[in-house]
Structure formats: structure tokens, C-alpha cells
Design brief:
By secondary structure, the protein is mostly beta strands. 2% of the residues lie in helices and 67% in strands. The chain has an eight-stranded antiparallel sheet with strand order 1-2-3-4-5-6-7-8.
Amino acid sequence: LHVRSRRQRQMCIRDRIYVGASAGIELFSYKFIAPEIKLSYFAGSDLDEFYNLDISTGLSNGWFLNRSMKSSVLTFSPKLVYGNKEFRLVVIPEYNIANIKAKGVFSEIEKNAITKLAEVKDYYWSASIGIEGYGWSESTRIGFYINYSALDAGKALNQLDFEAQGFSKPNYNTKTLGATLRLLYHFKTGRKK
């Protein structure tokens, strides 16, 4: 909360959220290689809100700008595994094909909203390294990975131009370093040999 004068108050709120979910299949496992195909979905938003209240008159005005993205990603990976049956080190280089859609909505109190759209196809590499071990049954495996994702939703979000509404050109870059927890289920009975 910022106070400009005794008669006027302004408040600016900024929220950013970015989430994703994936499902895939390990095609086969032979010695040190276990290729995978995965489909992922990511969504995120960046909301700017500004309110201006004139205390003496009780009148307020404000605006908000919501930029959001949705992305579906198809991934091909030659997962490399090192270790024994109980516990193994995993290296996962991934080639990704992404369709990224971005939407921006600018709105002022008592005025019509302005909506802008952008869509981009992107091809990029990502990588993960982690460990896998048996889960609570012979058919399950649990993995924990540190991963670098080169998914850059900024390629679409940066096309949403609201300079005429007083915003500078955006500079989004959503490449990230993160952690992933995976649950793997083997449809074969018994442990892999």
C-alpha cells in the first residue's frame, strides 16, 4: 500500500503462477537405456492490478492486466539408467515440441476490455538428473530429479503488446531449474530383471 497524499491511496498487486503436469510411457528397458515419450501441459499467469482511491470523494478507478499462457508439450527422451535393480542414477535428455498460447487482457473500471492473443511453436532441449528406487510394491518406482526446462513461454507472452495502454514491452523468460517427483508404475508383474 503506497500513500501518495492524505487524500489519495494507491495499491498495486502483482501475482505470478506457473504450474505443469505430465504423463508418459517408458517404451522398453534394455541394459542402460529406457526410452520415454511424454505429454505435458503447463499453464501460468501474471496479473497486475492497480487501484486508486480518492478518500475525499470516495471515488475509485483502477485497471488490471492479466497475461496468461498455456502450453502442451510432446517430449521424446532416451532415458539413460545406471545402477542396480533396487536403486539407480537416471539421466534424461529430452527433445521437446511445444505449442505455446498466450493471452493478455487489459481492463479499466467502467471501460471495455482489450484482449490480445499470440501462439508459437517451439522446439527445445531439456535435461534431468536424479535417482529412482522401488516404491511400496514390486510394480512401482519412485524417482526424484533435478531438471532444467528450456520451455520459454516468453516467446508468446512477449508478443502481447500493451504499450498503448502505458505498459513497457514485456520481457518474459520461463526457462527454469526445478525439482520433479515421479511415480512410475510397471504393468508387468514382478520386478524387472
